[in-house]
Design goal:
The chain contains six helices and nine strands. It has helices at residues 6-24, 26-32, 35-41, 58-64, 68-75, 157-167; strands spanning 42-49, 54-56, 79-82, 86-90, 93-105, 112-114, 118-120, 123-138, 141-151. Strands 1, 2, 3, 4, 5, 8 and 9 form a seven-stranded mixed beta sheet that branches. Strand 1 and strand 2 form a beta hairpin.
């Protein structure tokens, strides 16, 4: 049994819910190009490390979803589909890990009829990876200090990131 007070336990629940909300807001923000999410969610000096590209500062991170390339992906049916994060609280900091699928319409596939749901050529998983979210409590709520993403493609990046987060 934990020696934490009821207030400590309630604060932990509220913290985790706030972090879940912050992370769950990422896919719809990415899929609609909502740059305000990134300005609000990331620290002013926050970092996003996608393995192949990085951005530092919430303004630079927010600008990514307004690039012509990202806007073209949105117009093509971009979908970020996230798994429920695993959150570890450490006082005023936290680490969360989660999975992320990037899904796109499969325009080259033969359309298939599904009873009661119409015809569709379906979707394909463009990529699947793991996120590590490092967060900090601020006077304005939880903010992301760093988000790292690594593809689950057989290389060591994602499994190592997941092992580190689980070990903390």
């Amino acid at each position: 049994m934990s020696n934490d007070t009821l207030e400590d336990r309630l604060r932990a629940v509220e913290d985790k819910l706030a972090i879940y909300h912050l992370i769950a807001s990422h896919p719809p923000a990415a899929d609609t190009g909502s740059d305000s999410y990134y300005r609000d969610a990331f620290m002013v000096d926050g970092v996003i490390d996608l393995g192949t590209k990085t951005a530092q500062g919430n303004e630079a991170i927010a600008a990514v979803v307004k690039t012509p390339e990202h806007q073209a992906a949105i117009a093509g049916g971009l979908c970020h589909f996230a798994g429920l994060p695993r959150v570890e609280l450490h006082g005023d900091t936290a680490v969360a890990i989660s999975y992320l699928q990037v899904i796109a319409p499969n325009r080259e596939a033969k359309p298939v009829e599904l009873s009661g749901h119409g015809r569709s050529s379906g979707y394909r998983i463009h990529r699947l990876g793991a996120n590590r979210w490092d967060l900090k409590r601020t006077k304005d709520g939880w903010k992301v200090t760093r988000r790292a993403y690594r593809m689950l493609d057989g290389t060591d990046g994602a499994p190592e990131m997941l092992r580190e987060a689980v070990a903390e």
